[in-house]
Amino acid sequence: MEPAQRYRNPRAxxxxxxxxxxxMDKVALGQKLVIYGILVNVIxxxxxxxxxxxxxFVALLAVGLSFxxxxxxxxxxxxxxxxxxxxxxxxxxxxxxxxxLLMINGQATNALxxxxxQVGLFGASR
Length: 126
Fold this sequence. Notes:
Number of domains: 1
Distance between the termini: 38 Å
Structural class: mainly alpha
Strand content: under 5%
Radius of gyration: 18 Å
Largest sheet: 2 strands, antiparallel
Number of strands: 2
């Protein structure tokens, strides 16, 4: 290999990964899961008085969607595991969890827009 080929110009276009495993695809999927988690969480709160026996199961579904979405967004953005774990722990605190979800959703939206995705009300599309 020639010495000139060993190093790349930092201004040259960098190769990008495509496919389901790429970082921004994880962020897009995670954002959709977080948005659906917020919606299911609102439904669980509204269900709590009339359907008291079923509301905890719906809330558990919301927590699962939110946890999965946060992990995918964190991995896609390259966030440290310690920060992801801290945010997941904050998700267990009532009312703080909505703020954490909105913060993570905002970070995902900014990253996806910078990557060229179109972000709408229910997530991103290429």
